[in-house]
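BUG-431 | component: ligand-complex export | severity: low

The export step for nickel (II) ion jobs runs without errors, but we want the raw record kept on the ticket for reference. Input record follows.
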Amino acid sequence: MVYRDEKLSEEKVFKDPVHRYVHVRDRVIWDLIGTAEFQRLRRIKQLGTSYLTFHGAEHSRFNHSLGVYEIVRRIIENFKDRDNWDHEERLLCLCAALLHDLGHGPFSHSFEKVFKLDHEDFTQQILLGDTEVNAILKKVAPDFAKDVADVINKTYENKLVVSLISSQIDADRMDYLQRDAYFTGVSYGHFDMERILRVMRPMEDQVVVKESGMHAVEDYIMSRYQMYWQVYFHPVTRSAEVILSKILHRAKVLYEEGYTFKLKPIHFLSFFAGQPTLKEYLALDEAVTLYYFQMWMQEEDPILSDLCDRFVNRRLFKYIEFNPNSQMNEWMELYKLFSKAGLDPDYYLVVDSSSDLPYDFYRPGEEGERLPIHLLQPSQELKELSRLSEIVESISGKKRTDHKLYIPLDRLEEMSQRSKTKKRIMEILYG
Ligand code: NI
């Protein structure tokens, strides 16, 4: 039997708290799970710094990737006997689902921002470069690795396949919403996925949902909306992220200034230079990163050691509402006052803004050009979701932004009560 069609003699199952079981029968999938690059995802948390806010949120990208695979497996199972569905694409869909987040690095968000990296870029490199994953994909067919890379990159010609992995109602989102809700313990994020899977239908170039499933889809959209504001953009999580970014920034500056580290940042050097090779990128996971942070608590540099201590021991920055666009004068005054108080404002006075677009209908030519969710009416006509659902209509296309100012309030409080600088800072911050 050719490798592509090989089945395991017995089905393997992974216990999963969200989907109960993840089923694997294909030899290719089993082999991919066993690669070093896929196993590495165990050492990258799905939600970055969120565990400092929600202590349960320690789940990894490994968990999530298996979950996305399982959802796609079930969707395809339902598609089996339908016209419009090319069963030849099955293995491709499963591989793309399993491998879609392969390039995520430690604390992706902050790392990407500070070092100007792109995890999607690394996903492509892992799929196409000299890796264990690539060796397995090549065994399926010479072009297979490229096809998987194209599906994940959304450039694959069969858009129906692409929409299973990335669209506004795809397996990726359906998994992370439920998984993140489960592990954070919040009561948002739940929706009836079984129902949605039952009413999904393959159309020429997209997955659509039967109109009778509209309320389940509404629930899914609202749960996404709530998860963003209650979990993903939680201000405490962002505080930890701010500190993390500043640690990376400080280490880079010190290195460039020729500072002598007690623990030299060997694993970070290529990141500081902005060009890590694939091997260097894969070598830096969260365990390694946290090891450095813990060691750097002993560094002579007071900023680096303080920031690392804050991260490791969870002494986070406090936050207040602050809009940098309308409060420019306050910002400039605070900047000067912080310098005067001996708190380097580049590290201790930080504005963070988060924004989300909960659901968007198609507006050609606009940023992102998100594909809309289409409902299939009994007449076989397609209608865009927000035209049928008032609930979705009320939040669609509406971008909401939240600005916060982060500061080490403990350090300000330590200052003498008689300090005029302190008095003025407190006045601006708290009125
Ligand atoms: Ni994902």
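Assignee comment: Attached the raw record above. The first helix runs from residue 27 to 33.
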